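Agenda item 2: protoporphyrin IX containing FE complex prediction
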Amino acid sequence: MLKINPDRYGVIAQTFHWATAVLVLIAFIYGLGGNEMRVYDAAHDFQRMLHETLGMSVLALVVLRLLWRLLDTRPAPAAAPRWMRLASTAVHGLLYGLLMALPLTAIFGAWLEGHSLTLLAGVNITSPLPLAHALGQSLAEFHTLLGDAIMILAGLHAAAAIYHHLVLRDCVLKAMLPVWFKVWQPKKRWF
Ligand code: HEM
Ligand code: HEM
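Presented output:
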């Protein structure tokens, strides 16, 4: 019932995909820059709570999504040269890796620096770890680099999906879209 079409990802897999993409984008926009004092300044409490809540939701979603992926049937890969299929698998693997590593570096970074996780609705998760400030700071800095990395990789991944749709004119993009979402595709090759 949940699988409408064997050529497409199922409704649940599509929902996980697009909800994650939107949450990552908003988390990135509301990412906190600057030094530790600025990040944990009371004036930035709301932005930090929003960012941490969005990021924790990404972590929860990616764990559920990977569990669902074990049970779900995915569409057969589009006919494409071997290098392209390998590149696509590698990028998907890296995206999953980043979706896990981003929240984990932030959580452990904040805890090792001695900060609680502060989420919306007054949820506070105090650090269960001993203080290791320098290591925590390095993890927090690494987290910001990973934030940039996921945007670049997701951008290339989205560009590849659009290239498949417009230039190769195959079903790769449609596979991740619901059947009711009609998207224009050229009838003939451009060159
Ligand atoms: C997919 C999820 C996430 C993305 C895309 C993301 C992205 C970013 C980015 C790009 C920055 C740097 C902003 C800038 O330099 O202008 C940042 C900083 C930060 N993020 Fe995240 N983040 C995510 C998840 C989380 C989570 C789950 C937490 C906490 C539980 C968190 C806590 C922080 C903190 C505390 C900083 C400031 C780092 C510092 O101390 O310098 N983030 N994030
Ligand atoms: C932060 C943003 C994004 C992330 C983290 C992300 C992540 C992923 C991941 C991990 C997969 C593999 C799914 C699986 O087989 O389990 C995937 C598939 C896919 N994504 Fe994204 N994605 C993002 C944004 C986008 C955007 C903006 C588009 C379209 C413009 C897009 C189009 C697709 C398509 C068409 C597939 C299926 C590819 C195939 O089966 O070969 N994604 N995405």
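Discussion summary: The pocket of protoporphyrin IX containing FE (ligand 2) is lined by residues 17, 20-21, 24, 69, 74, 88, 92, 95-96, 99, 154, 157-158, 161-162, 172-173, 175-176 (CB under 6 Å).
Owner for follow-up: CH.
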